[in-house]
Target: E3 ubiquitin-protein ligase TRIM71
Amino acid sequence: QALEARETELVGQAEQTAQQKLKTLATQRGGFELQLGHLRSCQDFVEESQRTCSQGEILRMKSPLVKQVIDLTGSFRPETLALAEQADMVFAHSLPGLVKTCQQFGKVYCHPVYPEKCRASGEGIKVATRGQKVAVSVEALDKEGEAYLQPVDSLRCELVASDGNNRVRGTVKRRNQNIYDISYRPLVTGENQLHILIEEHPMLKSPFTVTVLPNFTAPTNIIGDLNAPYGIAVREGGEVVVAELSNHRISIISGNGEKKSFGTLGSGPGQFNSPEGIAIDSKGYILVADYGNHRIQQFSSTGKHLRTVGTQGSGPLQFQSPVSITVHPHTGKVYVAERDNHRIQVLNSDLTYSSSFGRKGSNNGEFNWPYDVATDRDGNVYVADSHNHRIQVLTVDGVYLRQFGKQGEEE
Model:
């Protein structure tokens, strides 16, 4: 009975509000029609005078007619055409049929809180760490952007992984009158979508793109030792892949401290002679700059030998002391820093030859023992030009852009 009474009250209020709005709009329309009638009468009089009066009579009537037209048009302002009332309506929760019908034409909010005005803040709408709890704060606001002080009936969040399958529900706790704390614990690294729904409607800027980082804790129980680790790469899931120069092997270390290694000293497939550079490509393959064998080797994610490219020399697909290797984030091409050839050699993603740039020297775009190569998010190439004591920045094609650094010890 109380619910029926409340429904009757809400319907009565809505009808009363609607009637008042219709009355105001009808008055406004009447004023528009009266003004339009005056304009039409003036127009008809001018047109009739032009047809029936002589030129002299028209000239005598010119001044009063012009004044009348100016008075009429001067009283008209375009902004008066704006509706005097906005067609806001309030629907009771117990009218699902009416709400469903209205949703075919737009959005219907059955609650004073306004999802598209509500705001979210906190680290958790941008970045998180796999397995670690992260927090988000939500500010509940009404349609005027003012704090909504009553409890929100429905507020929920869900983190969806990029594959659309892995979903994590967050927990919600009301901190004070209009502030709510949300926490969630992501499970999948990479870009995730954080959906925050208020009264089953997305809030402002939802879904948020959250970058989930691997959770790597430095292991304390590594099985075995490391001997002259020269190259390092971190792959998805937090595993660390290390090139051990003096052990002539590659070691894969998991987040819980387990280590597995592959490779021995030698020049055969899967063997190494002082490996230095290491990288992970888009397929998860391990690429190794096999320094002493003057070649590049490719392995599966588990360490199975896949292919070897390169011989000693200075031509295409020849290497002289390759010390560093990186994969371009946009093209997938492989950049190899050759110390003794004083150049960067570029391979396609299938390890066929693409191009090379650089030669020995100290001018722009020249190198003297380049020892490392990397790329940024824009695709620019950075080279550690060791004996020139500088860092050079080049385009993806090796065109010189700028440099920084000089020999010295100052900070």
Observations:
- The helical segments are 2-52, 55-74, 96-102.
- The two ends are 79 Å apart (CA to CA).
